[in-house]
Amino acid sequence: TEKGGAKHFELAAAAGETEFKPGGATATWGYNGSYLGPTIRARRGDDLRFTVRNHLEETTTVHFHGAHLPAEMDGGPHQPIEPGGTWEPEWTVDQPATMLWYHPHPHGNTARHIFRGLSGLIYLDDDASDALDLPREYGVDDVPLIVQDRTFDGANQFDEDEDFSSSTGIHGDEILVNGTYGPYFEATTRRLRLRILNGSNARLYTFGLSDERDFQIIGSDGGLLSAPVTAGRITLSPAERTDLVVELRPGETVDLRSYPVEVEINSPFDRNNGLDDSFDILRIRAADELADSPEVPGELIEVPSLAAEAVAAERSFALQSPDSINGESMDMNRIDFGTEVDTVEEWTVRSTDGFQHNFHVHDVQFQVASLNGEEPPAHLRGWKDTVLLEGNGEAKLLMRFTAYTDPDVPYMYHCHILLHEDQGMMGQFVVL
Ligand code: C2O
Ligand code: CU
Ligand code: CU
């Protein structure tokens, strides 16, 4: 365990308005501003403390997605912050360097709170990643991208109406990146690290570069991979993150785009779930002279495999639209099971209705042991907290809960397609 310092951050959720594009300001929500929130930066070993204030007119929460922390600090539906109220979570960071995010998680209202703009990033650092020669100058050669889709109505307001032809909820027809409409980035270095969060409610993206060049994937939700993976495309479902490095040539312009998503779903209505759509995400303009940056190391960090360990419990989870896991909807008063601290469990998660879902577990980073009965692709062999399931797809996940036990306060697992989450495709467990 690394020794860190004390860090205190203030977050205040409030309503405001944001000028995204000509034609008038959009009513939005944000933390410490009108849209999104500040990037929180901390190191492994740091004692992190937050003062969270709720200036909204309704109850919200702040959940630290992907963070390993005590259940009462998790910010799920059991830690509501009333209008005018304050919440002060704290914990000691003890997990590998990565990019996490924070967002509201109020019971039944998560989709709307996130859609209006409440989300922010957490960068975690540690000694192992600092020892690697990777781009790490924030906003210069290490650039986070929060990708969201929104539809603007005639008065430039977010169109919040559910699309009843889609089983997964709201799909926008325009893209915001870090809350910016029509974004571009002026690159000044030969290698550019992009840490992408799919911050959308429902949409899946398959990212790639406009001239089909390859990039190197160096990290997943919960940390760096053991080695970089060369790829030309990467698919992210809501809440998933990737960490990748793009090589640039002086003076060029290249676009990060999203392409039609090739996931199997058992429905002729792919368009209704946005899978056929394409978007320009970010224009990258490289300066005529680029500062040199080192090649990505061939080996990154050690990712100890949980596959070699004895499995203490096996559980299975069947996700079924519109609102259930194993036939039951989320009930704040029902704890579905208790898991034993410091043991390895294998969870089998399945889509049973032919549609895409994804599966997220609080407090832990898991390993994907198999995907549809096969070894997962290399970029999914690192630490993950959210995994995409194709229609009728199945993933086996290995995980170990450590350090924090609490017989009374549960953590959540759920589909991170936010309409499904709010409809009750969620359950609760305690660590004992
Ligand atoms: Cu992104 Cu239950 O959370
Ligand atoms: Cu979470
Ligand atoms: Cu779902």
Automatic annotation (TrEMBL):
<keyword id="KW-0560">Oxidoreductase</keyword>
<keyword id="KW-0732">Signal</keyword>
<dbReference type="InterPro" id="IPR045087">
    <property type="entry name" value="Cu-oxidase_fam"/>
</dbReference>
<dbReference type="Pfam" id="PF07731">
    <property type="entry name" value="Cu-oxidase_2"/>
</dbReference>
<keyword id="KW-0479">Metal-binding</keyword>
<dbReference type="Pfam" id="PF07732">
    <property type="entry name" value="Cu-oxidase_3"/>
</dbReference>
<protein>
    <submittedName>
        <fullName>Multicopper oxidase family protein</fullName>
    </submittedName>
</protein>
<dbReference type="InterPro" id="IPR002355">
    <property type="entry name" value="Cu_oxidase_Cu_BS"/>
</dbReference>
<feature type="domain" description="Plastocyanin-like">
    <location>
        <begin position="20"/>
        <end position="127"/>
    </location>
</feature>
<feature type="domain" description="Plastocyanin-like">
    <location>
        <begin position="321"/>
        <end position="431"/>
    </location>
</feature>
<dbReference type="InterPro" id="IPR011706">
    <property type="entry name" value="Cu-oxidase_C"/>
</dbReference>
<dbReference type="InterPro" id="IPR011707">
    <property type="entry name" value="Cu-oxidase-like_N"/>
</dbReference>
<dbReference type="InterPro" id="IPR008972">
    <property type="entry name" value="Cupredoxin"/>
</dbReference>
<comment type="similarity">
    <text>Belongs to the multicopper oxidase family.</text>
</comment>
